[in-house]
Amino acid sequence: MTAVKRIGGDEAALRQVQMLIGGKWVDSACGEVLEVEDPAHRRPIAVVPRGRAEDVARAVRAAAEAFPAWSRTIPRDRGRLIARIADALEARLEELARCIALETGNALRTQARPEAKTTVDILRYFGGLGGELKGETIPLGEHVLSYTRREPLGVVGAIIPWNAPVLLAALKIGPALCAGNTMVLKAAEDAPLGVLLLAEMCQEFLPPGVLNVLTGLGEECGAPLANDPAVSKLSFTGSTEVGKLIMRAAADRIVPVSLELGGKSPSIVFPDANEDWVVDGIIAAMRFTRQSQSCTAGSRLFLHRDVFDPFLDALGQKVKSLKIGDPLDEASDIGAIINEKQFSKVCGYVEEGLTRREARVVIGGLPPKEGPLSEGYYAIPTIFANAANDWRLAREEIFGPVLVAIPWTDEAEAIRMANDSHYGLAAYVWSHDIGRALRTAHVIEAGWVQVNQGLGQSPGHSYGGYKESGIGREFSLEGMLESYTQRKNVTVNLMR
Ligand code: NAI
Ligand code: MG
């Protein structure tokens, strides 16, 4: 059984893909399809079912039917199946990585392949946590036994975006299923193919209905899932705007939510950190090699005034040397933006920066109108110096390679500006003075602060946002326990 039918022979051939409901590969009830585009060449590469309310209802029913048996399966055995999915995925890593690169526009070497590898790590990590679903005993006296159980919630409705689609799918599937829940997951309309490939590998090992994967649009497929009365937990990654809709849907039926939303993360560079490795760190933190389409992008650079110009010169030189081009080319460092809408949104912010007289363009600008790069949604890394923290460019999540550099002299002022944001996802602090760096880390209002590095998340992190960046934690044992289980207390009178 396979979800994919190729129309034509090569990698770029149009694929017709189905979605997964109750262990079966199916079309949408209405029979309509959505096109998936390769953003590096602006051409359709696949059609997927246009799932709607009827399909959502069917998938939720399948997940609800699978729940009793799955929730009673010994946790270690559930974990073992998840670990086997990780092995299967590892065996098809390159295929998965190329699929991600093709549909997202993320460069294979710098982003898509690392995403596929981290997905294996995530599934393996959660596959090993079955034994950690432990309860406690409460010391109420010799004649009483009072204990807690960690029970699953039921059917989880998960909705994910397109920026790291397969990794984010695994980040929901791994902990939710290990904890004994079943799931209906809606893939993002812009990047469903890698997620369906992952679903295919999951389906080799899981009983039918434990994982159901739908494709469709946000309002037509995501909204009915969020509002389905049989869904007892919502887990969403995406924009803050849609996150609020999800939370409202959850409020109507008092079901728990996990939200991983946007960010506008600060990077604070102290004057002693005007060094090459910090320049490299800022590039990594800004996620330039994934077109900065990352919620943790360190997109507000607070640079001490004493090192402002030389640091930016070095940064500009290094960023300029990154190669923008075909995501499937091993030589490319930077690929394409996901779709036309995001591309024009990013260009709009660049245009706005170019009209600001105070802003100095360190590098970048609008994308070329001709030449090979004009064939895809290729944005050019752009850095605006002398920005102010109250500009729209410094307040809104651009989700594209546009970095604003803001000078500071007084440490307290730098921290005040860093915290002056409705977001609070990630932050980066750069200094050799570890006491000063850690004092800064402690007063920053963000869920994840890195000192002297700009890396991605690893399994085991308690990852999640402060303020409008979200609710709940992912990536970790605590995340699994808090997000995907509910505690029951049982108290027994031992004297009867
Ligand atoms: P989005 O939040 O609209 O889409 C994310 C997911 O939610 C997709 O699967 C989409 O189909 C679904 N969705 C959309 N509307 C929905 C609704 N009414 N009910 C239920 N589900 C719905 O994000 P979009 O439009 O792709 O990107 C817009 C902006 O969101 C980006 O520019 C960026 O600022 C932010 N974003 C943040 C991400 C993160 O990792 N936190 C990921 C993607 C986008
Ligand atoms: Mg949207």
Please render the helix and strand layout as text.
Blueprint: E1 4-7, E2 14-17, E3 19-21, E4 24-26, E5 33-38, E6 43-49, H1 53-72, H2 75-91, H3 93-104, H4 108-127, E7 137-138, E8 144-152, E9 155-159, H5 165-178, E10 182-186, H6 193-205, E11 211-214, H7 218-227, E12 233-237, H8 240-253, E13 257-260, E14 266-269, H9 276-285, E15 300-304, H10 308-320, H11 340-355, E16 360-363, E17 382-385, H12 392-395, E18 402-408, H13 411-419, E19 423-424, E20 426-430, H14 434-443, E21 448-451, E22 466-467, E23 470-471, H15 477-484, E24 485-493
Parallel strand pairs: 2-6, 9-10, 9-12, 10-11, 12-13, 14-15, 14-20, 15-18, 17-18, 20-21
Antiparallel strand pairs: 1-2, 3-4, 5-6, 7-8, 8-24, 13-23, 16-17, 19-22
- Broad CATH class of the largest domain: Alpha Beta
Report on the biggest sheet: 7 strands, mixed
Q: Look up the CATH topology of the largest domain.
A: Aldehyde Dehydrogenase, Chain A, domain 1
Q: Sum up the overall morphology in one term.
A: globular
Radius of gyration, taken over Cα atoms and rounded to an integer in Å: 23 Å
Instruction: State the fourth-level CATH superfamily of the largest domain.
Output: Aldehyde Dehydrogenase, Chain A, domain 1
CATH-scheme architecture of the largest domain:
3-Layer(aba) Sandwich
Number of helical segments with 4 or more residues: 15
Relative helix content: 25-40%
